[in-house]
Amino acid sequence: MGGMDIAVIAFVVLVVLVLFAGIKTVPQGYRYTVERFGRYTKTMEPGLNIIVPFIDRIGAKMNVMEQVLDVPTQEVITKDNASVSADAVAFYQVLNAAQAAYQVSDLQNAILNLTMTNIRSVMGSMDLDELLSNRDTINEKLLRVVDDAANPWGIKITRVEIKDIAPPKDLVDAMARQMKAEREKRAQVLEAEGSRNAQILRAEGAKQSAILQAEGQREAAFRDAEARERLAEAEAKATQMVSAAIAAGDVQAINYFVAQKYTEALAAIGTANNQKIVLMPMEASALIGSLGGIGAIAKEVFGDNQAPAARQRPTTTPRTGPFEPQGK
Question: Which of 1, 230, 231, 324 is the most exposed place for a label (fewest CB within 10 A)?
Fold first, then answer.
């Protein structure tokens, strides 16, 4: 092998080395910075890239995918001097590889400390009750503050979430007792309201019942009075008719009237609850004589339309009653 062959082989090897030094491949999700003599010149995108061998070199390999950063637990003093422990998680993404590489040193550590500092600032400006109940508000404030602070670094804070807020054990016990007392208070209030509503409903029911009962009694009294009025009218009319009959000379009318009252009195005496034996110190012929007067009036009213047996008069005259005139 001559000197010419060796030179050709050396040239080929040199060309291959130059090609390897000048051709760079960037994977997806990454950005590479290019430095020429230590100064930033450009950013290589994913794929095949060519640089000047031995003059340009790869500076920083930046991951532009969204990344998660775990924020460790730290003690926070709230506005009302309560000590709580809180931890969080932050998500960020590199938007400008050059700024992320050259504007800040140790990017993750910078984001971590920035997030921890703002957690203490935001949570320390709130009361304990507000801190425990408004976690979404805390996350929103943290995201806005941390993103504004990290914007010059060429990164975007996409999310900051508080994972856990842990008050001291004695404070948790006090809160549990307070919650129990509050629930018992609400239970007593609800029970009292239920009892009051039940009493109101019972009173309303009693009121409606009394109103209906009073209306029923009023209606019954009205009907009773109407019945008594009609009875009195009938009685007055009967008395008027009997008086007219007596004035006309019909003595049997008074016998009919008295016999009717006499019969009603006997019926009332016989149906009394406190009477088992009824003594009647009177002659039965008196009632029979009165009934005879009733028959005479009936004969005069109906005339000859009665049955033949009813037109026959008894051959024997009964004893004169106390209400029949003597000598007739």
Answer: 1
Alpha-carbon gap, residue 58 to 61, rounded angstroms = 8
| H-state helical runs in the chain | 3-22, 97-102, 107-124, 128-133, 135-150, 169-247, 252-270, 284-302, 308-311
Locus of tokens 């009292």: 192
Residue 41, Cα to own-chain centre: how many angstroms? Answer: 69
Count of beta carbons in the 10 Å neighbourhood of residue 282:
11
pLDDT tens-digit readout, 115-144? 999 999 888 888 888 888 888 889 999 999
The Cα–Cα gap between 276 and 39 comes to 139
CA-to-CA distance for 84 and 119, rounded, in angstroms?
12
- Which amino acid, one-letter code, is at 191? E
Cα–Cα distance, 67 to 24 (Å, whole number): 25
Cβ pair 69, 155 in contact under 8 A:
no
End-to-end CA distance of the chain: 194
Copy the structure tokens of residue 164.
Answer: 């856990």
